[in-house]
Design a protein that fits this description.
By secondary structure, the chain is of the alpha+beta class. It has four domains: about 1-65 and about 460-565, Calcium-transporting ATPase, cytoplasmic domain N (3-Layer(aba) Sandwich); about 100-240 and about 350-420 and about 690-740, no CATH class; about 250-335, Calcium-transporting ATPase, cytoplasmic transduction domain A (Distorted Sandwich); about 430-455 and about 570-670, Rossmann fold (3-Layer(aba) Sandwich), CATH 3.40.50.1000. The chain is elongated and about 125 Å long.
């Protein structure tokens, strides 16, 4: 039996057409500068060398390091401060930089909930005992000295419930950027102080002066409610972090040299440790399976709902759930370098970056502060001239109370928080929130082929029967048998195809190499050859799938069967192309693959393509399109597409965990599923639409309400009372919050 031969020639697979075994180590076609080496290498094709397939010379692409997602180099991603990644308090969203929210950086949604619920009884009592300016509500009543009780309760309320707003206002003034918190504080202060003055004057002069306690209490309660809703929404993405952190168990079972098991805290794990994971347990750290097979559920990490079968040599992500088998895993990433920590960090980064729309909102809020103060002063002067001081004061206070632009302040953060959270649930890690705003205006999307649109793995696409004396099953058995001694991926794809069909490989007595053509072997007294179509030298009357390579099985010089091998399109690729065309985004496939393979995939998808593209070619393509004034989205594998990912208006990296993906892409697809790009485009459109709606509601209300409050239409009998102003303002805040929460993505189409 000679099955352990080296298959040194094995040229029947015609590697020029297969484009060079790139998938074996995640190396995609785009290593254009290595193409010649590959062609040379495959001409003789020593199979024994493929077991390891050293690519160490691939400048900067030592894939042994990638297997474990080595992020040790993360320039620009300093995680040193995250060692524990405890986001439980802040849910990962420090707002200290949000000029409008600086004062409540430490108030997560739990704090605002508490502030609101404790302030609510006080506020309700105040509103019960305070007659409303202009009209009386049925639930209101007064009793002797009730106004003093109300004044005391209001003092307690402003000290307790008003604190975060005043802290925020102080921060804004420190930054010399008065905005939302300054306006809220102004409205609260004016209504409170004037009301205290009204109570004092009533007792000093005996003359009854109308107070604004009702307006003060309703304004404060609604503001606290609005903030609670805001923090809750913002917390959703942060809570996703906390949920991720919970996936990692606290302890790990470490296998010692004497095969005994030591239980050790996960924080103490080191790279190289061997850990045992029982069925039903969560994997404590990223690593590679040394022994054992199982199905792992990675749904919460990648969004992939199906459990993934894994065995020795396969990577596992910390936090994934082990199914039925016992696994022995060698740890290759711990703590901050782990996949979960990277995801947490990305969510935090995305949250802390203000988007274009957010900047617009902040600017508008700043303008509103000055407009409100100026209009209030003008109203005071004008009404003092044409009316009297009490009238002037009423209009001035009304203007300041209702100028509060809180709806505007909430408009954008609420939407971005919601969209970040939605994206994460779909396996979309949006590093740069501006990417969402840019993507909805995109003109062109450049897509890598291998590993992006295709699986990146060679598969048996078709087996043809060319002689009646054999059945198809017998042909598959012979194919698997003659390839039985090879560990080459293509040989392996034929063997696994036979396994899937439950066909046992034929037993060969000997297998030899045909120099430069393929292999031959003896079985059951017959001599068989598996050679390339070129080596066979005759045309076969059969349809070959586009972009596939044909190997012919020959018996005594007669072709008895053929196998077509190729890289298969992912099921969701066609749907993606449809979605892009529907959104008027032109798809272009740019691949390092040869013309024939590229054309095959492009024709099936119905898109424009560029073949034989080096990383430099792709970069130039992005540059040319941008120079034409087009908005370009680039989708690549994050390894060799780094320059073009960075140059494009929006860079989308397929597959999380690579250094380059983290550094150069704006969006990362954790599931490596092209269908998620469709979700991203949808998210971009819906997010931007919600932002515009909220800006309209938030700012529009203020621009209408301020002149009305100042009494611009009073001569024709239309005025806006402070109470009504406060209620309308609160309503606009709630509308904005609810509108943001209504942001939804369509159910995912899995092709």
């Amino acid at each position: 039996m000679n099955n352990d031969n080296r298959y040194s020639s094995h040229n029947h697979h015609d590697y020029d057409d297969m484009d060079k075994l790139k998938h074996e180590h995640g190396i995609t076609d785009e290593h254009g500068d290595h193409k010649d080496k590959h062609q040379e290498h495959h001409a003789g094709h020593d199979h024994s060398g493929h077991n390891g397939h050293d690519h160490s010379e691939h400048s900067g692409h030592n894939h042994s390091e990638h297997s474990g997602h080595d992020h040790s180099g993360h320039s620009g991603h300093d995680h040193s401060g995250h060692s524990g990644h405890d986001h439980s308090g802040h849910s990962g969203h420090d707002h200290s930089g949000h000029s409008g929210h600086g004062g409540h950086a430490h108030h997560h949604h739990g704090s605002f909930k508490e502030l609101f619920l404790k302030s609510l009884p006080l506020g309700i009592i105040i509103m019960f005992f305070s007659p409303l300016h202009g009209f009386k509500l049925p639930f209101q009543f007064t009793f002797p000295y009730s106004d003093i009780v109300v004044a005391i309760l209001s003092t307690i309320l402003i000290i307790y419930g008003g604190r975060p707003f005043y802290q925020g206002a102080v921060d804004e003034f420190k930054q010399k950027k008065p905005g939302m918190m300054a306006l809220v504080s102004l409205g609260l202060s004016v209504s409170y102080l004037y009301s205290i003055y009204a109570v004092i004057i009533t007792y000093v002069t005996g003359e009854h002066v109308m107070d604004f306690f009702f307006e003060f209490a309703s304004l404060l309660l609604i503001m606290l409610l609005g903030h609670w809703i805001e923090m809750k929404a913002i917390g959703e993405a942060g809570d996703a972090q906390a949920a991720l952190a919970k996936l990692v168990p606290k302890d790990a079972h470490v296998v010692l040299e004497d095969d005994s098991i030591e239980t050790r805290p996960v924080a103490d794990l080191k790279v190289g440790d061997l850990i045992r994971v029982q069925a039903g347990e969560n994997v404590p750290a990223d690593g590679i399976i040394e022994r054992g097979e199982s199905r792992l559920n990675e749904a919460l990490l990648t969004g992939e709902s199906k459990a993934v079968k894994k065995g020795p040599g396969d990577e596992v992500i910390g936090g994934s759930t082990n199914g039925e088998g016992v696994l022995y895993i060698k740890v290759n990433e711990t703590g901050d370098q782990s996949f979960i920590s990277q995801v947490q960090n990305l969510i935090s980064q995305a949250q802390s970056q203000p988007s274009r729309a957010e900047n617009i909102a902040q600017k508008v809020a700043g303008w509103l502060f000055y407009i409100a103060v100026i209009v209030a002063l003008i109203a005071f002067v004008v009404w003092m001239i044409i009316g009297d001081i009490p009238t002037a004061v009423i209009f001035t206070i009304t203007t300041l109370v209702i100028a509060c632009p809180h709806a505007l302040g909430l408009a954008i953060p609420l939407v971005t928080a919601r969209s970040t959270s939605l994206g994460a649930s779909r396996g979309l890690l949006v590093k740069d929130r501006q990417a969402l705003e840019i993507a909805q205006d995109a003109d062109v999307m450049i897509l890598d082929k291998t590993g992006t649109l295709t699986t990146g793995e060679f598969k048996v696409l078709d087996v043809k029967l060319l002689n009646d004396k054999y059945t198809k099953e017998e042909i598959i058995a012979l194919l698997a048998g003659i390839e039985g001694g090879s560990s080459h991926p293509i040989a392996q794809s034929i063997i696994s195809f036979a396994e899937q069909q439950n066909i046992r490989p034929a037993s060969f007595d000997s297998i030899d190499v045909i120099s430069g053509s393929g292999v031959e072997g003896k079985a059951g007294g017959h001599r068989y050859q598996l050679i390339s179509q070129k080596a066979y030298g005759r045309n076969l009357d059969m349809d070959t799938p586009k972009g596939a390579t044909l190997s012919v099985l020959v018996e005594n010089d007669d072709a008895i069967g053929a196998v077509a091998l190729g890289d298969e399109l992912k099921p969701t690729s066609k749907e993606l192309i449809k979605a892009l065309k529907k959104n008027n985004i032109q798809p272009i496939m740019a691949t390092g693959d040869n013309e024939k393979a590229a054309q095959g995939a492009a024709e099936v998808l119905g898109i424009e393509y560029r073949s034989n593209q080096s990383p430099q070619d792709k970069y130039e393509l992005v540059k040319t399109l941008k120079d034409e004034g087009k908005k370009v989205i680039m989708v690549g594998d994050g390894v060799n597409d780094a320059p073009s990912l960075a140059l494009a208006d929006v860079g989308i990296a397929i597959g999380a965990g690579t250094q380059v993906a983290l550094d150069s892409a704006d969006v990362i697809l954790t599931q490596s599923d092209p269908g998620d790009i469709e979700s991203f485009i949808e998210l971009a459109h819906k997010t931007t639409r919600k932002m515009k709606q909220n800006l309209f509601w938030g700012a529009g209300y203020n621009f209408i309400a301020i002149p009305l409050a100042a009494g611009i239409l009073a001569p024709i009998g239309i005025t806006l009372s402070p109470a009504l102003g406060a209620i309308l303002m609160s309503v606009s805040t709630v509308i904005v919050a609810i509108n943001a929460m209504l942001l939804r993505l369509d159910p995912k189409n899995n092709g």
